[in-house]
Design a protein that fits this description.
By secondary structure, the protein is α/β, with parallel strands linked by helices. The protein contains nine helices and ten strands. Strands 1-4-6-5-7-8-9-10 form an eight-stranded mixed beta sheet, with helices on both faces. A two-stranded antiparallel ribbon has the order 2-3. Helix 7 links the parallel strand 9 and strand 10.
């Protein structure tokens, strides 16, 4: 009986790639030869302990694809938080990626270089932002391979990762048509963004007209993110760009996917995201349209 069960699991895993990825999702470096300026350190091992990952010199995407029958063609690149000193990679990278994949959304958890880690040679606006833009370009450039609609590639940012989402969402993400690397010819601009308790950096005084539709969420007793989201909502209203905002009365900072909270609103907040994705048409299968 045990042999039959093992065989059944093996066959099921072969039929449904999502089952395989739950055990060991593939990891793809953003640059095959290492990130610009970090090539000599690309083979240094990362440091991981408890909830965090540090010492990232070869930025990468961990890939979570939905089961074929559930796939919507929508994708999200996820930027975990951690104050630019570390990455809260499991709770703000892997867990939201798994949740999104169950909804039918392809999810890519990003490990980016850290500007404020002790002894870091990197900066937020040069290296971290470059990693996020490269991640967006890489996913969009491989849309056909992964069954994605290249016009439905979003960006999710948590805390410090929310600041990176702002830099990329409101900055110039156009590809360079003359770039030697074909990935760099592709747009890095998100088609939508999901922002969870963000820091204040990266938000412009006025939103550019191509700012992506957004889902914002934080707790009102988390002072800086709450103020950042409230200010962004006013900017979105002024620009006439769709946005949804959730400011819960309690919750403080870093509640992740809500699993550890005693508050019903916090424990169930991912359903608000699922509702927004559904109402935005992002969970309906959509044929690739080119980009």
């Amino acid at each position: 009986m045990r042999t039959c069960l093992l065989l059944a699991v093996s066959l099921t895993s072969g039929l449904f790639p999502g089952a395989v990825q739950a055990a060991k999702p593939p990891v793809i470096p953003l640059w095959p030869g290492g990130a610009p300026g970090s090539e000599a350190r690309r083979n240094e091992p990362e440091l991981a302990r408890d909830y965090w990952v540090k010492n990232i010199h070869n930025p990468s995407l961990t890939v979570f694809l939905p089961e074929p029958g559930r796939a919507s063609g929508t994708a999200v690149v996820i930027c975990p938080g951690g104050g630019h000193r570390e990455l809260v990679f499991r709770a703000e990278g892997i867990e939201p990626a798994q949740y999104l994949a169950r909804l039918g959304v392809a999810a890519f958890a990003l490990k980016y270089r850290l500007a404020r880690e002790e002894g870091s040679p990197y900066t937020v606006e040069r290296d971290e932002v470059a990693d996020v833009r490269r991640a967006m370009r890489l996913v969009r450039s491989r849309a056909k391979e992964w069954g994605l609609n290249p016009d439905r590639i979003g960006l999710m940012g948590w805390s410090a990762g929310g600041e990176l989402a702002a830099y990329v969402s409101y900055g110039n993400g156009a590809g360079d048509p003359r770039a030697a690397d074909p990935v760099d010819r592709v747009s890095a601009h998100p088609d939508f963004q999901i922002v969870i308790y963000p820091g204040p950096a990266g938000v412009p005084e006025h939103l550019p007209p191509d700012s992506p539709p957004a889902f914002f969420l934080a707790a009102n007793d988390d002072t800086v993110p709450a103020a950042t989201i409230a200010a962004l909502m006013e900017k979105y209203r002024a620009a006439g760009i769709p946005a949804e905002i959730h400011l819960f009365a309690q919750g403080h900072h870093a509640f992740n996917m809500g699993n550890r909270s005693d508050l019903v609103t916090i424990r169930t907040w991912p359903q608000r995201l699922a509702d927004w994705l559904a109402d935005s048409g992002l969970l309906k299968p959509g044929a690739p349209t080119g980009h």
